[in-house]
Amino acid sequence: MVNKQQLTVVKIGGDIVDNDQLLQEFYNHFKKISGPTVLVHGGGNKASALQKELGIEPKKVDGRRITDAATLEVVTMVYAGLLNKKLVAGLQATGKNAIGLSGADGDAIRAHKRSVADVDYGFAGDIDRVNFSFIDELLSGGYTPVFSAITHDGKGQLLNTNADTLAARVATAMSSKYNVQLYYCFTKAGVLEDVENGDSLVERMDSTIYAAMKSAGQIVDGMIPKLDTAFEALSSGVLRVHVGTIQILSDNTQKHTTLCL
Amino acid sequence: MVNKQQLTVVKIGGDIVDNDQLLQEFYNHFKKISGPTVLVHGGGNKASALQKELGIEPKKVDGRRITDAATLEVVTMVYAGLLNKKLVAGLQATGKNAIGLSGADGDAIRAHKRSVADVDYGFAGDIDRVNFSFIDELLSGGYTPVFSAITHDGKGQLLNTNADTLAARVATAMSSKYNVQLYYCFTKAGVLEDVENGDSLVERMDSTIYAAMKSAGQIVDGMIPKLDTAFEALSSGVLRVHVGTIQILSDNTQKHTTLCL
User: Fold this and answer.
1) Mutate which of B50, B74, B105 to test chain A, going by most A C-beta atoms within 10 A?
2) What is the CATH number of the domain that holds B149?
3) DSSP 8-class letter at A61
4) What's the half-sphere exposure (Cβ side, CA atoms, 13 Å) at B113?
5) CB A80 to CB B79 under 8 A?
């Protein structure tokens, strides 16, 4: 472990992507990270807003979007186009040689269409394989890969994937060579004991605490798949997972939630 | 020249991108090209259609789109998102390891906002620099770069660029190392003496013939910047420029227009 190179994988949520001022602050923190970095970005409200403008009714089950053909077009446009290129151009301006990717680019991330059980999620993709060599090649070349959560099945079909999961899977795949620290950044300070109370930050969360909080109903909605995935990443080789604001990227005294097994 | 490696740069027009059947045929021809290849794609009608759905009035002067902020969002979504990723996923399915790029990705193509003279083109970008090393690195790694015509200024601003020009500029930049053949593919057989008559194909066009046809009013609209740029590429090191259908990519007996100085 000691001899492995450090790699930082950062996932930023839609609440940051949607806010131009926060995004500028994010660039400032992100550029201070030393060593190779990977960025994964969420979608924000733009996709839902565009769907509404186009008269497509956004459908979600348990916080997960149902991706019909029209919705897949919209998320491909917004995530892989508008947001991804905006972030890449923004990072280029800070001197980071960013390269925007979907899972189809360089065959970076293959997925399969989620099979229909209780719910038909449409063109939702569950990840099968992260292309370690391709991402490693980019990192070794000094590039910063910037992933939107659009993947492909290798047969020409694009798929809509959960960005939290994608970040965890990329982090896990890269941990064979790197000491990977995974950061989930959003506008909250971290995992809160009481979501209504910003001061109730859980600074250190292991799987026992997590299980207890989950059964007590203190972890809800999108936080459940995010944390499930994060603990999976930890048990698959990722060194540390941090959850908090963008400040934690450049200031390690900043309070946040650190996950450990 | 003899010792240089062959490189094929292909630009496909919106009339191909818009048509799913033609696109499948295109993949079949494109995959038969031996040696390194670069693909540049145009926009098609999707951007204008989306603008209309969103209540943005598409504006053009002399066939060139006026790119206001709302239009820039739309073309970034459609060109760099929807169409680029669709093409990349389609090429991956044929076994080509495609990687979709805007000019911002890997700092591939820098441009500046066109200065306002008679017409304010808005966020239209004129190319300053093609990043030879980055593209060469991808080609040497066995990747097929797939460019949409969205570029950046290096200061965080995305810009809308003419795809014909972008193809010619990439071809020119790569000609320092490669023997470059540039193909402009669309649904016509090539340059026609009489646009109304499909049988009036000009098979070989040099700059003298071009000048004569231009003054006779036989070359009009979007063909003028396309051919101007193509002749510029020829005088800057590109070996040959071909204009015709997608069939010419895999069948060199197929009639088309070959441009030469």
Assistant:
1) B105
2) 3.40.1160.10
3) E
4) 16
5) no
